Amino acid sequence: MCTAPDVVARRYGGACPAQPPRAHRCRCGAARSGRGRGRALETIDDWTQTLGAGALLAIAAVAIAVLLVLIITVRMHAFVALVLVSLLTAFATRIPPEFVISTLTAGFGSTLASVALLVGLGAMLGRLVEVSGGAQALADALIGRFGEKRAPLALGITSLVFGFPIFFDAGLVVLLPIVFTVARRLGGGVLRYALPTAGAFSVMHILVPPHPGPVAASGLLGANVGLVLLIGLVVALPTWYLSSYLFGLWAGRRIVLGVPDILSGGEERETDPNPPTPGTVVGLLLLPLVLIFLDTGLNTLTSAGVVDGSTTWVAVLRVLGATPVALLITVIVASYVLGTRRGRGGEVVEGLLNSALGPVCAIILITGAGGMFGGVLRTSGIGDALAGALEGIGLPVVVAAFVIATLLRVAQGSATVALTTAAALVQPVVVAGGYSEIQVVAIVLALAGGSVVLSHVNDSGFWLVGRFLEMDVKTTLRTWTVLETLLGTIAFGLAAVVFVIG
User: What is the pLDDT of residue 149?
Assistant: First the structure.
C-alpha cells in the first residue's frame, strides 16, 4: 500500500497521471523498472488491480487457512510456511511477476528493520542481566515488596510505566528476563507472568501518545493530543486490568508452560554469589527509557512549535533517543557495569553477548516472514479493497471507526497501518460532523481498539510473543489472540462510553 495520494485511484482503475513519477518509491519498496521484461510498468504503482474486493478477501482467507494447516497439521516450519504462502498469495492476487520478489523482500526487510536490532540488542541486555544475577536480584526485590501473589500485578504495573515511551517489542524484550526469573522462582508456568506484561506494552502502544498510531490518528482527525493522552490513560488502565491481568491469570492457570531458556542461554545457572543490587538493575533498565523519552518528548515539542526540530542539537539528541541507539548505549553501559567492573574480562563479555544472539535468530526470521506475509496482503490491494467496501456502511461514527479498523487489522496484520488507514477513511465524516473535542478523542480510541483485535498469523507481533514464550501456533491463538481481542474490544467499549458522555 503506497502513500502516494493517487495510488488507490490508479490501482482500481481511476485517473492516472499522464507522466507518473519515475523515481517514486512505494512504501512497500517495490519500485523497480519493468523495462527489459516486455512490460510498460515503471513501478508497481502503475499496476491496476483487476480483482474485486470479494475475490481479494477470499484469497486472503484461503491463504490464512492454508498457512494454519501447514504449520499446525503438516508441521511445516513456520518460517518456510510463511515464505511459501506469501509467494503463492502474491501470484494469486496477480501482483506482476517482476514485482513479486521485491514485494516479498520489502515486507520482510521493513519488518526486520524495526525488529532485528531491537530483539538482538534486547537479548544481549537480557543475557547480561540474567548471567550477572541482576534479574534474580530485581525479582527478589519485587516479590519482597509486593508478595508472591501480587507478582503478576507488579510486573504488569512496571510494564505500564515502561510502555509509556518505549515501543511494544523493545519493552517486551528488555523485561522478559525479569519475567522469566520471577516465573522460575515462583512456579505456576510462565503465562501468568508474561501475559500481563506483554498486554501492558500492547495497551500503551495502541492507546497512548507518543506512540505513532494514536499520534497519527489524532493528527488526521484533528484531535487534541493532550486530551488523547489523558483520556487514553484513563481507558488504558482498566482495559489492561480486565484484558491482560485478569485474563492472564485465568489463562495461566489453565495453560501451564515451562519457562523458556531462550534468553538465559541454557539451563538456569546457579545464583551469582555477589549479584548487582536491584537499584543497579533498575538504573540500567531505566536508561533506555529515559533516552527514548528524550526522543519522543522532543518530537512532541517540535510538533507543538516549542523547539526548532531543524537545529543540530535537537537532531542529535533525537538520534540518541531512537530505540535501537538507546538500546545500543544501554548494552555498552551494561557490558561495563555488569561485566568488566565485576571482574569479567573482555573475552567473557564478548562470549556472553555472542551467546545471546543464536537463540533469537529464529524469532527474528519468523517475525520478518510474518511481516512479509502482511506486506503481500497490503501490496496486493486487499486492505484498499476492504476500505472501499466499508466507506458507506451507515453505522454510527464511533462504531464504524472500530469496525473499519478491525477489518483492516484482520486483513493485513499491522495495527499501525490499520489505525492510520481507518482514520483517513472516517476523517471526512468526523470533520463534517461537528463533534466535540472529547468525542473526537473517543473516535481515535475506538480506532485504536479496532486496530489491535484478532492478532493472528499475518501480524509480526503474534510471532514475536509466541516464539519468545515458546508457544505453538494453536496455543498462541488461544492466549495472545484472545488477549488482544479482549483488549481492543474493552477499549472500544470504554471509548463508546466516552463518546456518549462527551
Answer: 84
Classify residue 131: in a domain, yes or no. yes
Amino acid at site 246: L
Which residues form the domain of 332?
A: 111-207+264-360
Residue 176: closest CA among 124, 224, 243: 124
Contact by Cβ (8 Å): 293, 226:
no
Which of 176-190, 344-358, 362-376 has the highest average model confidence (pLDDT)? Answer: 176-190
User: Using one digit for the tens of pLDDT, what is the confidence trace for 449-498?
Assistant: 998 998 888 787 888 888 888 898 889 999 999 999 999 999 999 999 99
103 with 375: CB under 8 angstroms?
A: yes
What's the whole-number mean pLDDT along residues 400-415?
A: 82
In a domain, 127, yes or no: yes
The total domain count for the chain is: 1
Radius of gyration of the chain (CA): 23
In order of 32, 193, 256, 302, 438, the CA distances from 253 in angstroms are 52, 11, 6, 47, 39
Dist CA 281 CA 330 (whole Å): 11
Burial class, 337, CB count within 10 angstroms (exposed 0-12 / middle 13-18 / buried 19+): buried
82 found inside a domain: no
